[in-house]
Amino acid sequence: MPDHATALNAQNLAEVGSRVPVPGYDRSAVTAGVVHFGVGGFHRAHQAMYLDRLLSKDVEAAKDYGICGVGVLPGDARMRDTMASQDCLYTLVLKHPDGSLEPRIVGSIVEYLFAPDDPEAVVEKLAAPTTRIVSLTVTEGGYNLDDITGEFVTDTPAVAADAAAGSDAGKLTTVFGLVVEALVRRRERGLEPFTVMSCDNLQGNGHLARTAFAAFADLREEALGEWVREHVHFPNSMVDRITPATTGDDVALVEREFGIVDAWPVVCEPFTQWALEDSFGAGRPPLEEVGVQVVPDVEPYELMKLRLLNASHQALAYFGRLLDHELVDGAATDPDLKPFVRAYMDAEATPTLAPVPGVDLDEYKDTLEERFGNPHVRDTTARLAAESSDRIPKWLVPVVRANLAAGRDVHRSAAVVASWARYAEGVDEHGESITVVDRRRDRVMAAAQRQLGDDPLAFLRDRELFGDLVDDARFTDAYLDALRGLHDDGARATLRRLR
């Protein structure tokens, strides 16, 4: 344990480097060729880490792909301040299953802009000739797409205001307005468009990004939307690394174990994966040199991850909380929940998947169980249960639809949806309150309350979330059976009956 702690910044990097690995490359020689929206824990544990690895290999081309982070939301002001005080450096700590810690200072983020401070500066950064890729981790709900129709929602106030603002960058507040205005300026200046690279957990995330940005461009000018569709590249990707929210304990751990004062370190599991479609218009870094799977078709990897890992996380989240598990590893190793989740993976998720090149699905599922059960990551069921209305329709409902179409079993998927409905009632089995975090919180909680009356299908009647599932007796029979069990017998007895 170090005898004193050192503040993390560029001036102190040599001293910090006597304790943990630090960037060995000259950060002043790195150009920000990537502009990233949504600099949170996952981005810093994943994409920024891969680019840091590449820069550390002293690959000459890598120097053109440092990262300029951008925050758009008011809450991003904290990241702005942290990045400013630490010269965009941060500590990444891998927590291994045996309890060992693997720290590293990551230096691939070389600049950070907070759009509310100066939208014009963000647009000009995007429009600069050096910018080749605009990447996104703006959450599953950040693409402003209708869950059922898949169409861009044009009448949200922020989108409508940005469309009306047009080229007046000072009035722009959304990622859509900022990015599209930058594309307009690049076109006017004779610069090729940058690539827009989504790194969010969505099937066909590149296709969805194209839909969203082109539809916003349509609002400004129909011909502009067509130009975006024709000329801008939107590669699909699959990203994977379990990254819990940073806690005060994590900040204290970094100071205690490594003698580093870091206002916002990142902790995560050791496993990481990135499958990326090779579709870039303005060049890309040689990411395959640091373990990224650059492939012609990402879809098999996407579906594998979304339907096995992400949907299984939803199974762990609500049942886990109802079983009094605060931490995911406790839920993942629970003697009744663990076999239920594995049965979902084997019997309902796997039959919907095509073969995945280079992946043994049974081994992948075994690895998922080990990852979920890592006791040192300390991920929470509350984090997994947040923003459910953006997640269940995208991760689990497609599994349900595929199995219904094929005449296969859906009773475990139905039970997961029922566990969300029970969780959304806001009270657990001991009468303790549950804090529901969801942008549609009021709506889903109101529906959950109505199911306690004379309409047990009230939760499923939200067609924006579930489409026509409420009309299919094969699903509703299984859903009602699980929901009755949760109300009458509790989560544990229901799981024992369902698996």
Automatic annotation (TrEMBL):
Residues 33-288 form the Mannitol dehydrogenase N-terminal domain. This is Mannitol-1-phosphate 5-dehydrogenase. GO terms for molecular function: mannitol-1-phosphate 5-dehydrogenase activity. Pfam families: Mannitol_dh, Mannitol_dh_C. Belongs to the mannitol dehydrogenase family. It catalyses: D-mannitol 1-phosphate + NAD(+) = beta-D-fructose 6-phosphate + NADH + H(+). It comes from Quadrisphaera granulorum. Its EC number is 1.1.1.17. PANTHER family: MANNITOL DEHYDROGENASE 2-RELATED, MANNITOL DEHYDROGENASE DSF1-RELATED. Residues 297-480 form the Mannitol dehydrogenase C-terminal domain. GO terms for biological process: mannitol metabolic process.
